[in-house]
Design a protein that fits this description.
This protein has helices at about 35-45, 70-75, 90-100, 110-125, 135-145, 175-185, 205-220, 230-240, 250-260, 285-300, 310-320, 325-345, 360-365, 375-385, 395-400, 425-440, and strands at about 60, 105-110, 130, 150, 190-195, 225, 265, 280, 355-360, 390, 390-395, 415-420, 450-455, 465-469. It has about 475 residues and is of the alpha/beta class. The chain folds into two domains: about 35-65 and about 325-469, Aspartate Aminotransferase, domain 1; about 70-320, Aspartate Aminotransferase, domain 2 (3-Layer(aba) Sandwich).
């Protein structure tokens, strides 16, 4: 039987699909009442990051570390070799990265942010530039703190939430060339390439694009480092959309894509299906030597990198599980199910639907709320008030301030992200979410924006506080 997820609204008589797993253990969740939610939201300063999880009904804040581990992963946790040096679990992790991603040298880190930090410190000389296919919050901050200037080189279609380009994560090679012509190749530290670009709505990069990017970079000796956090989902979109890849497995596509890059960093809390952990992998021995020396300073010994042996074992097993075609089809299929419900109800979202989340277009939800009154933050607050569903802002708050002028950065995309954890929620939960979003959309004309009343120095979206206008 065809187990490919079908689209919402197909003709009667279609065969249904189901998740390729069954539930062994449950965690109770509870619905709160509106008065309690209002009190909790005010206590949190209208910032969903500051809500207590026990007060959340369906938690779509992030897919980072929130996925459900398998029985094999939990069993692997019992096989943790907690030796300070040379843990056998490190060698299992190293072998898994080499087998499925194809890189030679592996450094474990406590999470993806640690890997970003190490790479930025080792690969950037102050005054250089980093070109990337749209910024990500922590990635850009580490690059800037290492002395680089980030330059966005994503294709223009990525900034249009209604554009249906199948690979809106692609790099615009002309923008890269213009940067090289303007500053010189030696001033470009590296290309920061993200798979399924988060801030663009989980949009993928094509194999053809990364192949052409590698040819361009080879002419100038510029390395490409990959944010592989959600590369498995990117491989799915290549398999589905790019000619010549329909008959290839997710694992084959993933390894081929990585072969066009010089290294990668990974937040294992996403694709690798664990609650904590990350890794950094490169092909250059000299860079690896610098990284494994630096990891001892900032994370831990180069064979544990801030992780317990049991965590490394869970990551190694998760890497193998994550590339299974049935798993990836189910994962993306659930995201699409929610997206197609909302699209059928004319709710404004980023199109095409990405791999890990639905991104609500807050500008079209609230055309009467100016961007400096934080419409995406407002939408996240309203969704929690309506139903106890936690989402997160991906707009002007996440973009932060320009370090030169101190003014807000105003991205073209003002989005509220509904991030679906892997192997956690059912389709019934998605129905509840869709109905809640519809209710908030219908109430949008009466909604007021927010004002910022507390702003931390770095990554303000995590801890900022707001009040109603």
């Amino acid at each position: 039987m065809d187990q490919t997820p079908k689209t919402f609204g197909q003709q009667a008589g279609r065969r249904s699909w189901a998740e390729p797993w069954k539930i062994k253990m449950v965690e109770p969740i509870k619905m709160t009442n509106p008065a309690d939610r209002q009190e909790e939201l005010e206590r949190a300063g209208y910032n969903t990051f500051l809500l207590r999880s026990e007060c959340v009904y369906i938690d779509l804040l992030t897919d980072s570390g929130t996925s459900a581990m398998s029985d094999r992963q939990w069993a692997g946790m019992m096989l943790g070799d907690e030796a300070y040096a040379g843990s056998r679990n490190f060698y299992h992790l190293e072998s898994a990265v080499q087998q499925y991603y194809g890189y030679r040298y592996v450094v474990p880190t406590h999470q993806g942010r640690g890997a970003e930090h190490l790479l930025s410190r080792a690969a950037i000389t102050p005054g250089q530039y980093v070109a990337g296919n749209m910024y990500f919050t922590t990635t850009r901050l580490h690059q800037e703190m290492a002395g680089a200037t980030f330059v966005d080189v994503i294709i223009d279609e990525a900034h249009d939430p209604e554009n249906l380009h199948p690979f809106k994560g692609n790099v615009d090679l002309n923008k890269v060339q213009r940067l090289i012509d303007r500053v010189g190749a030696d001033k470009v530290a590296y290309i920061s390439l993200a798979g399924t670009v988060n801030m663009a709505g989980g949009q993928p990069v094509s194999m053809g694009n990364v192949r052409e990017l590698r040819l361009l970079c080879d002419r100038y000796g510029i390395p490409i480092y990959l944010d592989a956090t959600r590369m498995v989902e990117n491989a799915f979109f290549i398999q589905e959309r790019e000619p010549g890849y329909t008959g290839k497995t997710i694992a084959e596509i993933l390894k081929e894509f990585c072969s066009f890059t010089h290294g990668a960093w990974m937040s294992a809390k996403k694709d690798n299906l664990v609650n904590i952990g990350g890794w950094l992998a490169v092909n250059d021995w000299d860079l690896f030597e610098e990284l494994r020396n630096m990891v001892v300073i900032f994370e831990g010994l180069h064979t544990y990198g801030g992780l317990a042996g049991r965590d490394m074992e869970a990551i190694a097993i998760g890497i193998e599980e994550a590339v299974q075609d049935d798993h990836v089809r189910s994962r993306v299929g659930q995201v699409r199910y929610l997206g197609e419900l909302l699209t059928a109800w004319n709710i404004p979202i980023v199109q095409p639907v990405g791999g890990h989340a639905i991104f609500l277009d807050a500008k079209r939800f609230y055309p009467h709320i100016p961007q400096d009154q934080f419409p995406a933050q407002t939408l996240a607050a309203e969704l929690y008030l309506d139903s106890g569903i936690r989402s997160m802002e991906r707009g002007v708050v996440s973009a932060g301030r320009d370090p030169q002028t101190g003014d807000h950065r105003y991205p073209a995309l003002e989005l509220t992200r509904l991030t679906i954890p892997r192997r956690v929620y059912t389709q019934a939960h998605m129905d509840v979410v869709a109905e809640a979003v519809q209710a908030v959309f219908e109430a949008a004309p009466q909604t007021r924006g927010l004002k910022l009343v507390y702003e931390p120095k770095y990554l303000r979206f995590f801890q900022a506080r707001f009040e109603r206008i």
